[in-house]
Write a structure and sequence with these properties.
By secondary structure, the chain is mostly beta strands. It folds into 2 domains: 49 residues, no CATH class; 82 residues, Sandwich (Immunoglobulin-like). It is 9% helix and 47% strand. It has 1 helix and 11 strands; from the N terminus they run αβββββββββββ. The strands form 4 sheets. A 4-stranded antiparallel beta sheet has the order 8-7-10-11, with no helix packed on it. The chain has a 3-stranded antiparallel beta sheet with strand order 5-6-9, with no helix packed on it. The radius of gyration is 21 Å and the shape is globular.
Length: 138
């Protein structure tokens, strides 16, 4: 177990120095530019590494006007507040709501305002966001 912690610590300390090179063709002189690659996605929790605080599944997908749109949460305690934003692909907000996180919730979409296409639904809990895509067909 100590080897895992030492490896993680080594990666966290020295992994940030990793850089990628990309060919630069514009401007005067040409050459190469380097871009730093961060490693800030790992969170050490007890004896395991975790990158997700909570997860959500939306269904049915594709959605029709006769369906009841639902979301199922994992990793959250009951009665925690979740913000929900539904938007189209150009960013227009169609629904903004705040609900209690149960195992499964019903999302009341304004289907009369939806046209056939792809939409995004974003769930936010504290500082963590998850966005899912769903299709709507009348």
């Amino acid at each position: 177990m100590k080897k895992i912690y030492i490896s993680i610590l080594f990666f966290m300390l020295f992994g940030a120095a990793v850089s990628a090179q990309a060919h630069y063709a514009g401007g005067s002189g040409g050459g190469y530019a380097s871009t730093a690659i961060g490693n800030s996605t790992f969170v050490l929790v007890g004896d395991s590494i975790s990158t997700k605080v909570f997860d959500v599944t939306v269904f049915p997908n594709p959605l029709t006007s006769n369906d009841i749109f639902k979301a199922k949460f994992t990793g959250l305690k009951h009665s925690e507040k979740i913000s929900i934003v539904v938007s189209d692909m150009i960013g227009s907000r169609l629904l903004v709501d705040q609900v209690d996180a149960n195992d499964e919730i019903i999302i009341n979409l304004p289907t009369e305002r939806l046209s056939k296409g792809i939409y995004l639904i974003t769930f936010q809990h504290n500082n963590h966001k998850i966005t899912r895509r769903f299709n709507y067909s009348k």
